[in-house]
Amino acid sequence: MTDEPRDGSGEAGPDPGPPGAARPADGPPGGDDSGTPHDGSHHDRGRHDRGRYGGARHDAAHDDGPGAAASRLTGRAAVAERRLSAALAEVTLDGGQVVMVKRGDAPGAVCAEAAGLAWLAEARAVRVPAVRGHDAHRLVIDRVAEGRPDARAALRFGRDLAALHAAGAPAFGAPPPGGPEEAYIGRAPMRNVPGDDWPSWYAAHRVLPYLRRAVDEGVLRPAEAAEIEGVLERLPDLAGPAEPPARLHGDLWNGNVLWGADGRVWLIDPAAHGGHRETDLAMLRLFGCPHLDRVLAGYQEAAPLADGWRDRIGLHQLFPLLVHAVLFGRGYAEQALAAARGAPA
User: In whole angstroms, what is the distance from residue 79 CA to residue 66 CA?
Assistant: First the structure.
């Protein structure tokens, strides 16, 4: 799911518009408020640093600056730094390697992302930036040089994503090894509590917490929430054949998909956990992804999806839509309601 667009500012950006709306070719709306033009680095395009990492107060004792933090955590001298936002900087290390340095304020945010990146990398499937060091407040990862989307890379990405999912997880809701139970999807809290079966786990630990918040905050009417709850009660019959827990990126919208200059797709900003593989695919569709037809073709070639998967897309989008409703308001609540009403009878 996505929780918000990121403009690199360290503050909440504009509402990205309804799911499926057209997006600019260079990513989510907004830009870097530091006055620095975009240079194609992946964190200029993403958006999660502002939620999990920026905009909140932090302990000044740990705010040693991005260059100093990169040096401390990698053991290599920093020779240059360029701040992209209040929470994000590009740092050049001695020897020429360029890394991205994020400052984390939310409890456990840095640990969750570092553990997620390591877990995804362990699968040796889709590429992710290497973690070069982290502590409670800073995360240092490789910078990814970006290229342009193309059909060949998309086909390979689909195959690689299938391999990532096939690497599996101990349970639905299982956090990455070493990752916290209280994690995040963007700036929204996301609890990783293991469950035995996907329908009951998804309802209890993903959809219902944000459904209740949406009602409490007045963006969803009680009668509308009851309609969504009715769909959740039918999830065991709607979810399709039982599948083992997949190793998910967990927030696989287009802004977290980087088309590398090396001709490969790289993934950033995971909300990694054990889940249903169709959830990542539904996320790719929620805000659109270049060459999505080729991505899906590559995925189906490697690991065919169960019959009826297209009819289940809306079910898997309920969670991100409700998170968006809580963060951005009524428009996303209406989208969630439409997804529920579109569930098979």
Answer: 11
What local confidence, expressed as pLDDT, does residue 41 receive?
44
Q: CA-CA distance, 95 to 258, in Å (whole number)?
A: 25
Phi, psi at 155, each rounded to 5°: -60, -45
204 vs 208: CA distance, rounded Å: 6
| Contact (Cβ atoms closer than 8 angstroms) between residue 173 and residue 205 | yes
The pTM assigned to this predicted structure is 0.84
Hey, is 184 helix, strand or coil? strand
pLDDT at residue 345, as a whole number: 82
| Confidence bin at 22 (pLDDT 50/70/90) | very low
Residue 63 neighbours by CB under 8 Å, 6+ apart? 103, 137
Mean pLDDT of all residues in the chain? 85
251 is catalytic: yes
In the block, which residue shows the tokens 């409490």?
216
Name all contacts of 166-169 with Cβ < 8 Å and 24+ positions apart: 166/246, 166/247, 166/303, 167/122, 167/123, 167/125, 167/247, 168/244, 168/245, 168/246, 168/247, 168/274, 169/245, 169/246, 169/247, 169/248, 169/273, 169/274, 169/275
pLDDT tops 60 at residue 49: no
Of 251, 280, 307, 311, the catalytic one is 251
β-strands 78-83, 88-93: how paired? antiparallel
Q: What pLDDT sits at residue 63?
A: 59
What is the distance between the alpha carbons of residues 197 and 171, in angstroms, rounded to a whole number?
Answer: 8
Question: What's the pLDDT tens digit per position in 156-175?
Answer: 999 999 999 999 999 999 99
